[in-house]
């Protein structure tokens, strides 16, 4: 089975970190987020994927090559003009025209059982199936209403607090029959969530949904990026990038210099970073090449590549652009 990976977004909610890279290349436990998507596909027997890109597409070349070495053949379909989620799928129609295929939003981090989702889809004779995940506050999302057998009856976009009939939302993971592509206009901006799915429901087409309690995170904001990294350290999100996950785990990449008396607590430190004596790093993510000066403190923050934290500086709860300098 093939999979489409939707990775064309500009990541505006993650700026300034996404000014120089697609959001899908930001790290989770010192590995690009998209690598974890590749892991999910490989774990479920998917060996062919199409990466649907637009923004800074050339930056994906290295991870695509690494995926091939691990057994996942990844083709790249580039959109010079962004066509939204369904439009991007239509752009790759020739790649998935011969059979059932998966699609996954590239900014989703999940351990969802793809095999179970495909089986659910097949047994119901669905044209399309959407995975659902529970959230504490569905008012921030679009909720999906279904019948008892999972058939989708309606979508409610950002319901008022306390009014949602369910807390299950679209998890951004789908199974499609190739015929669904005939519902998508060519060369136009067209959304899976806001156009394709409501159109299928209105036409009475067999659109189904399946709930899952598996780990799920929309890594589209800096707080969620930080939380996803912390979840990988604690073991809430399981990854081979953290072989000894636990309450006090850290992920320190090769080539990191750690000075005398420096404490690294529940943090991910990128390759080539330099942490001077008596510094403190707590519940933070440092991209490669960060320099933290003597007696400086970094807490609950995400520091971009090459950031310099001057000696004695204190930083907490911030997202810092590549190359910035934090003064004491």
Structure characterization notes:
It contains six helices and 27 strands. Strand 2 (27-28) and strand 3 (31-32) form a beta hairpin. With 328 residues, the chain is an alpha/beta fold. The chain has two domains: 2-218, Spore Coat Polysaccharide Biosynthesis Protein SpsA, Chain A (Alpha-Beta Complex); 250-326, Hexapeptide repeat proteins (UDP N-Acetylglucosamine Acyltransferase, domain 1). The longest helix is centred in the last third of the chain and has 13 residues, at 222-234. The strands form seven sheets. Strands 5-4-1-6-11-8-12 form a seven-stranded mixed β-sheet, sandwiched between helices. A five-stranded parallel β-sheet has the order 14-17-20-23-26. The mean pLDDT is 94. Helix 3 packs across helix 5 (192-203). The chain has helices spanning 33-43, 61-69, 84-91, 114-123, 192-203, 222-234, and strands at residues 2-7, 27-28, 31-32, 48-53, 73-78, 101-105, 108-110, 128-134, 142-146, 152-157, 168-176, 207-211, 216-218, 251-252, 257-258, 263-265, 268-269, 274-275, 280-282, 285-286, 291-292, 297-299, 302-303, 308-309, 314-316, 319-320, 325-326.
């Amino acid at each position: 089975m093939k999979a489409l990976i939707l990775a064309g977004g500009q990541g505006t909610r993650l700026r300034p970190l996404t000014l120089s890279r697609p959001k899908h290349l930001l790290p989770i436990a010192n590995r690009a987020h998209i690598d974890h998507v590749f892991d999910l596909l490989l774990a479920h027997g998917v060996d062919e994927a199409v990466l649907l890109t637009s923004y800074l597409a050339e930056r994906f070349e290295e991870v695509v090559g690494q995926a091939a070495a691990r057994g996942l053949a990844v083709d790249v379909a580039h959109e010079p003009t962004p066509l939204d989620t369904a439009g991007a799928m239509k752009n790759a129609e020739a790649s998935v025209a011969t059979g059932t295929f998966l699609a996954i939003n590239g900014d989703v981090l999940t351990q969802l059982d793809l095999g179970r989702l495909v089986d659910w889809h097949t047994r119901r004779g669905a044209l399309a199936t959407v995975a659902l995940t529970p959230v504490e506050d569905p008012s921030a999302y679009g909720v999906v209403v279904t019948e008892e057998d999972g058939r989708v009856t309606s979508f409610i976009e950002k319901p008022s607090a306390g009014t949602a009939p369910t807390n299950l939302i679209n998890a951004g993971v789908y199974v499609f029959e190739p015929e669904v592509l005939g519902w998508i206009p060519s060369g136009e901006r067209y959304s899976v969530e806001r156009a394709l799915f409501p159109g299928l429901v209105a036409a009475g087409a067999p659109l189904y949904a399946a709930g899952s309690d598996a780990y799920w995170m929309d890594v589209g904001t800096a707080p969620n990026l930080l939380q996803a990294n912390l979840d990988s350290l604690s073991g809430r999100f399981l990854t081979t990038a953290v072989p000894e996950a636990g309450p006090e785990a850290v992920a320190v990449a090769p080539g990191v210099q750690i000075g005398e008396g420096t404490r690294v607590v529940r943090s991910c430190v990128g390759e080539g970073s330099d942490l001077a004596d008596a510094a403190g790093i707590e519940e933070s993510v440092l991209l490669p090449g960060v320099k933290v000066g003597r007696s400086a403190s970094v807490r609950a923050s995400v520091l971009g590549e090459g950031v310099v934290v001057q000696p004695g500086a204190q930083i907490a709860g911030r997202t810092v652009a590549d190359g910035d300098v934090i003064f004491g």
